[in-house]
Amino acid sequence: MIAAANPLRGVEADAQYVGRIVAAVHGPVVLVGHSYGGSVISQSAAAAANVKALAYVAAFAPDAGASHVLMISHPGEVAETIEAAARN
Predict the structure, then answer these.
(1) Do 60 and 38 form a contact (C-beta atoms < 8 A)?
(2) Which of 8, 21, 31, 85 satisfies CB 3.0 to 4.6 Å to 41 for a cystine?
(3) Is the pLDDT of residue 1 over 80?
């Protein structure tokens, strides 16, 4: 197991940092993110063929191209989406 320290430089920079660590691993990788780290692992995984799974622990799990900032700034829309998904 590798626990990467998140440098907190912004999603793009942090995802690149994690991506470099992932690229150095020879074999399958499972990325785990908490809170803001969910956005980071989502973006990192998009560029890494060896990432086999993502685990979100009380984390933001944005759709491709989405941002945790958008989720925070529109909490009503997020709540409606969660409620709709729960009904289905």
Answers:
(1) yes
(2) 31
(3) yes
